């Protein structure tokens, strides 16, 4: 099972990625993890990436694709792999295609923006333990107070409404075009074209999981 998971930030990709990883016994590949590992290992690509990042610049698609190809040679990718948060742009998608990275499925998790804002802006966290609450879906016994310690809960900057709206805007402007890109390729019937599946990310987590598994068995 070799797949790309697409969807807006807050659509639940991380949660579903964990279920998919376990079911198919495949690693989740994120560019952030790859970059950190390559820098730590001091590989040629890692050193090149570090130089760019230290200068406050974005790592080029060439370096990212090089890291992806290196990562896919590792033994844990024998059963397949799951790309989460990559590719982010048409240029990266083209580079992946041109370098012969095989994709069986592209799975889109669709959640309306207003629900994403409600989901993310309602999160409250207990910093010391990492416990997460939600003002609507999983509220603490007392407002903004941790159930266990009685300490105050915080809203992370990432979860503030204005931050969520900014992230959604970036997604719509830069990454949403990939939905059309992969849909068109899937419908082309060309050799090597992936299957494209779209599921709703609204509803109980288990229901979304079951829908994802069903979509990936079609």
* Count of helix runs: 9
Helical/strand content category: alpha/beta
Largest sheet: 5 strands, parallel
Distance between the ends: 12 Å
* Shape descriptor: globular
SSE ordering: EHEHHHEHEHEEHHEH
Query: What spatial order of strands do you see in the largest sheet?
Result: 2-3-1-4-7
Binding site for ATP: 10-15, 123, 132-133, 203
Keywords: ATP-binding, Cytoplasm, Kinase, Nucleotide biosynthesis, Nucleotide-binding, Transferase
Catalytic activity: AMP + ATP = 2 ADP
Region (LID): 122-159
Folded structure, characterized:
It is a single chain. Strand 5 (123-126) and strand 6 (131-134) form a beta hairpin. The protein has 218 residues and is an alpha/beta fold. Helix content is 47%, strand content 14%. The chain has nine helices and seven strands. The strands form two sheets. The protein has a five-stranded parallel beta sheet, sandwiched between helices. The protein has a two-stranded antiparallel ribbon with strand order 5-6. It has helices spanning 13-24, 31-41, 44-54, 61-72, 90-98, 113-121, 161-175, 177-188, 205-215, and strands spanning 2-6, 28-29, 81-84, 105-110, 123-126, 131-134, 195-200.
């Amino acid at each position: 099972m070799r797949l790309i998971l697409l969807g807006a930030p807050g659509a639940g990709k991380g949660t579903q990625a964990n279920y998919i990883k376990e079911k198919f016994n495949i690693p989740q590949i994120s560019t952030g993890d790859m970059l950190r590992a390559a820098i730590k290992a001091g590989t040629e690509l890692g050193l090149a990436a570090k130089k760019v990042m230290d200068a406050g610049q974005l790592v080029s698609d060439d370096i990212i694709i090089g890291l992806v190809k290196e990562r896919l040679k590792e033994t844990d990718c024998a059963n397949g792999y799951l790309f989460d948060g990559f590719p982010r742009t048409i240029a990266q998608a083209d580079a992946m295609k041109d370098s012969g990275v095989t994709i069986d499925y592209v799975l889109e998790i669709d959640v309306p923006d207003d629900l994403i804002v409600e989901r993310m802006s309602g999160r409250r966290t207990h910093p010391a333990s990492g416990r997460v609450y939600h003002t609507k879906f999983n509220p603490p016994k007392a407002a903004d107070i941790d159930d266990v310690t009685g300490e105050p809960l915080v809203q992370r900057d990432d979860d503030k409404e204005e931050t969520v709206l900014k992230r959604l805007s970036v997604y719509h402007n830069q990454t949403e075009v990939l939905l059309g890109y992969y849909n068109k390729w899937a419908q082309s019937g060309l050799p090597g074209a992936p299957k494209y599946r779209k599921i709703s990310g609204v509803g109980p987590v288990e229901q979304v999981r079951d829908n994802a598994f069903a979509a990936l068995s079609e």
